[in-house]
Each structure stands twice: as structure tokens, then as C-alpha cells.
Inverse folding.
């Protein structure tokens, strides 16, 4: 089954403790992206990747890092999480005409 | 610049019709439409390409007015399963697959 897999689904962490949210797609898509979703603000792009070893900032990259060492994986790294990074996060990959989203990660930073 | 979606919310009775609009101030290459149910991921509905035809998906269709840089999503004879938040994503010609998302339109269908 074609899918984008994100883990974990839920995460509660403390301020400053490094964390990684994993994202993997099995569709051989070149383009992948990370979004955060906050009430009333829609989807805001954090980082995206056009291909292996090619990443670029989106609209809200501060406090986040990504890497793309292989086509299928695109992890999101929070080196020092802060409470304003509490949000719902989605990974997505793009096929010819649309995006396939992962099931989301609800992150709470206390 | 974020496209403007209207209305922000709409409440319908089952079987009624609805129109959701998405407007941009920039010249667009395509407009995407997605539906998101509470707590779930957005799901692709359709894409409208510049110069393309009106699209349809079951009783949901959409149009793209290139002159106005506006797209409209039409939901006909709405079903309970249509409830959710609808997002448009706009893509410019020079955007490298980047989508700019609207804030969403919440659709509530009542029996």
C-alpha cells in the first residue's frame, strides 16, 4: 500500500530535550515536505526536500532541522524544543498531481 | 501570500449544496483541494491546472478561473461523510512544487 508513515503519533516532551519525528514514504517520490498545523492558521511549511541531499527552508523553519540522506526518509529534528513548537505536524510527499500526507504527530512541549 | 478561503465555516442539512471559494492575489499554475477530518491527515480531492478543465469527483467538483485567480469547490447533494475542513493549496509557476495553503473552510453536515 502506498503510504507516508510518521512516528510517533503522539509525543509529550520537556523544553530543551532533543527529539526526532520520523517520516518514511514507499512511493519513490522525490519531493517531501514537513508542515505544522495550528488552529486558524492552516498548514505552514517548515522544510521541504526536492531530492536526496537537497533541502530548503519553508515559511517557518526556525527551531527545526531536517535531513534527506535517502529518498524514502525525511526526519524532522527539534534540537531544543520550546512550548511554542507545540503543534500538529504532518509529513507529506508529492506525486504528479497531489500530496500524500502522513497520519500526523501531535507534539506537546511542556 | 496565503490564499483567501470563504466562507470560514458553513452548516448544511444533508442533501443541500455548498460552494467554497479560494482566491489568490498571485498568478497561479494550479489549485489543489483537500479535505481533512478531525484528527486525521488531509486527503487529496483534486487538482485544477492552468488551462485545464473543470474537474469532478463523485458529487464534488471544482473550477478554476484564471483571470480572477480564483477556484471554487462545489459540493452537490451533500452527505454526512462530506463533513470536515476543506483546504485549498495554490501553486505558482515558479514555485518548485510549493503550495501555499488557505486557512480552511469548516463544513458541518447535519442529518
Amino acid at each position: 500500500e502506498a503510504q507516508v508513515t510518521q512516528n510517533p503519533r503522539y509525543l509529550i516532551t520537556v523544553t530543551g530535550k532533543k527529539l526526532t519525528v520520523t517520516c518514511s514514504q514507499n512511493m519513490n517520490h522525490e519531493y517531501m515536505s514537513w508542515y505544522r498545523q495550528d488552529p486558524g492558521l492552516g498548514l505552514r511549511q517548515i522544510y521541504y526536500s526536492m531530492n536526496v541531499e537537497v533541502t530548503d527552508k519553508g515559511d517557518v523553519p526556525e527551531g527545526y532541522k531536517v535531513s534527506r540522506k535517502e529518498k524514502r526518509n525525511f526526519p524532522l529534528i527539534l534540537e531544543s524544543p520550546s512550548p511554542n513548537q507545540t503543534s500538529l505536524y504532518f509529513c507529506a510527499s508529492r506525486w504528479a498531481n497531489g500530496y500524500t500526507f502522513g497520519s500526523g504527530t501531535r507534539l506537546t512541549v511542556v | 501570500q496565503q490564499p483567501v478561503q470563504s466562507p470560514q465555516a458553513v452548516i448544511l442539512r444533508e442533501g443541500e449544496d455548498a460552494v467554497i471559494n479560494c482566491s489568490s492575489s498571485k498568478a497561479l499554475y494550479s489549485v489543489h483541494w483537500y479535505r481533512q477530518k478531525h484528527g486525521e491527515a488531509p486527503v487529496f480531492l483534486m487538482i485544477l491546472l492552468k488551462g485545464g478543465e473543470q474537474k469532478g469527483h463523485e458529487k464534488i467538483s471544482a473550477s478554476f478561473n484564471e483571470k480572477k485567480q480564483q477556484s471554487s469547490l462545489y459540493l452537490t447533494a451533500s452527505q454526512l461523510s462530506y463533513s470536515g475542513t476543506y483546504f485549498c493549496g495554490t501553486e505558482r509557476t515558479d514555485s518548485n512544487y510549493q503550495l501555499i495553503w488557505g486557512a480552511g473552510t469548516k463544513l458541518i453536515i447535519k442529518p
